[in-house]
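From the methods appendix. Each design record in this collection lists the tokenized structure first, followed by the designed amino acid sequence. Records were kept in a plain field format so they could be parsed without special tools. The example shown here is representative of the layout used throughout.

RECORD:
FOLD TOKENS (89 positions):
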């Protein structure tokens, strides 16, 4: 579904809500349709970077890169072998 289609659906719901000619059960469905379409449009705005950011990332060669593990198993503290192990009773 494209942004234009979502905007058209939202505008249709708003238009039918402003007439006030709809029965109560239709009014609630139109409100849910309006709220859902507005939430989807807001999500699209939040997830799509602007053209300037895309161009800057391309210029800098930014992208995902693979890095090695930073875990150091040798530095982990180990239990002393002389301590008794406490078992639940």
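DESIGN:
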């Amino acid at each position: 579904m494209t942004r234009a289609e979502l905007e058209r659906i939202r505008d249709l719901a708003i238009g039918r809500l402003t007439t006030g000619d709809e029965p109560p059960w239709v009014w609630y469905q139109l409100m849910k349709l309006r709220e859902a379409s507005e939430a989807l449009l807001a999500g699209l705005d939040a997830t799509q970077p602007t053209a300037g950011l895309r161009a800057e990332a391309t210029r800098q060669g930014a992208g995902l890169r693979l890095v090695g593990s930073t875990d150091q198993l040798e530095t982990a503290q180990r239990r002393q072998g002389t301590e008794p192990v406490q078992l639940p009773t």
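APPENDIX NOTE: Residues 7 and 13 are 10 Å apart (CA to CA).
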